[in-house]
Amino acid sequence: MTTGRDGFPGYPRLDPPPRGVRVYGGHVGISLTRVDLSGADDRAALTAFLTSNTFPFHVRVRPTVAQVENDIRAGSWDGDDVETFWIDDERDGRVGVIRLEDLQDATVTVDLRLADGARGRGFGSAALSAATHLVFSHHRGVIRFEGQTRDDNVAMRRVFERCGWVLEAHYRDGWPVEGGDPLASVAYSVLRRDWASGSTTPVPRGPEVTLRGELRCADAAEAQRVRAHLAEHIALTRAEPGCLSFDVDPTDTDGVWSVSERFVDEAAFDAHQRRVAASTWGRETAGIQRFYVIHGRALDADALIATAWAAEETLLHPAVRSNPRELNRLLDPEFVEVGQSGRRWTRDGIVAALGDEPGTDSSPLVEERESRLVGPDTVLLTYLLRFENRVSRRSSLWRCDPTPRCLFHQGTPVD
């Protein structure tokens, strides 16, 4: 017998682990022993194990004797491309079973089950580490070792991550549930080259980047520029290799378009931004107001905060304050303001009041800006405002999903 990686004893590569023989053990106290389903003892033991324990995150929570016996006869637990091993601990004895499937493929999959009383004690991580070494040592054609579990199976996900496996996929409604609706599942894997080198190759593609929001024109001239160049802009963007979808549609409000974008990752989104900046569309529509919320990139927080500040400054302009339609667009239906006198205003009340007295200062001075995220899409702004010969400290709470809406505002005069 030769010595394998991490000190585990190993058999020559490509030789199948003999049935009924302990093939891996070591300082962790765990050994894997090939189940011998040609004998009555192991058939009975496997049936007893699977029917006397519960597996809440498997499709069958507690299989019946008949189900297990049928699966054994069908070759689900042993065969040309399936190997099953007992998980034994030197102190606690038999603690579980681990099944390796698709052994004749380049990707092998794992099914790990621990006895009810053996969970939460580190056996899962030790067994998966041993099984990983076994797979790559004995099956030279295997390049990936993969496992799937339910998305809410936190314990198993921790086992994968402790063993250096990488989250590769999330499947909506991907896990059947006996007697219920399917639930989400996740897939983890480890690569042969990472196992051999002790490194981790990250998943190269980051999450999708999405953008939602509105393009708002201040006048008919801006709207005409949008109409003149929009078709070409859409066609060029949809032709970009990283673009998943791109839609710019007119809303019920003249001069306002809704925008929805999806790109495969941050690099594709940034490439799109660079192309647009140098394009005819970019030049012709520069300066037109955009209220966007971006998700899936490192600058999410900065983008949300910038969106909230732009909306706050828009609310200070007399042309907006005197326009009920714009105010209703920027203020949440549940908006509340506590005025400088202490009066509490609703959205309807403040829209009516500002319509009568919108103010005349079109260049208010905003100083001492501070901002922070207080939720996934909610931003708190505080600042000092010099407005129409008055000075006040202001705070606003904005929710930006998809367009900015002010939830709360308060102003306190500064003597």
Annotate the secondary structure layout.
Blueprint: E1 2-3, E2 9-10, E3 22-24, E4 30-34, H1 40-52, H2 65-73, E5 82-89, E6 93-101, E7 107-114, H3 123-138, E8 144-150, H4 154-162, E9 166-177, E10 180-191, H5 192-197, E11 209-216, H6 220-238, E12 243-250, E13 256-263, H7 266-277, H8 280-284, E14 289-295, H9 300-315, H10 318-321, H11 324-330, E15 331-338, E16 344-346, H12 347-356, E17 365-375, E18 378-387, E19 390-400, E20 404-413
Parallel strand pairs: 7-8, 15-20
Antiparallel strand pairs: 1-2, 3-4, 4-5, 5-6, 6-7, 8-10, 9-10, 11-13, 11-14, 12-13, 15-16, 17-18, 18-19, 19-20
Helix pairs in contact: 1-2
Pfam families: ABM, Acetyltransf_3, DUF4440
Domain N-acetyltransferase: 33-184
GO molecular function, one term: acyltransferase activity, transferring groups other than amino-acyl groups
In words, what does this structure look like?
It comes from Microbacterium testaceum. This is N-acetyltransferase domain-containing protein. InterPro entries: ABM_dom (IPR007138), Acyl_CoA_acyltransferase (IPR016181), Dimeric_a/b-barrel (IPR011008), DUF4440 (IPR027843), GNAT_dom (IPR000182), NTF2-like_dom_sf (IPR032710). Residues 33-184 form the N-acetyltransferase domain. One of its GO terms (molecular function) is acyltransferase activity, transferring groups other than amino-acyl groups. The chain has 415 residues and is an alpha+beta fold. The protein folds into three domains: 2-197, Gcn5-related N-acetyltransferase (GNAT) (Aminopeptidase, 3-Layer(aba) Sandwich); 209-298, Alpha-Beta Plaits (2-Layer Sandwich); 307-413, Nuclear Transport Factor 2, Chain: A, CATH 3.10.450.50. It contains twelve helices and 20 strands. It has helices at 40-52, 65-73, 123-138, 154-162, 192-197, 220-238, 266-277, 280-284, 300-315, 318-321, 324-330, 347-356; strands at residues 2-3, 9-10, 22-24, 30-34, 82-89, 93-101, 107-114, 144-150, 166-177, 180-191, 209-216, 243-250, 256-263, 289-295, 331-338, 344-346, 365-375, 378-387, 390-400, 404-413. Strand 18 and strand 19 form a beta hairpin. Helix 1 (40-52) packs across helix 2 (65-73). The termini are far apart.
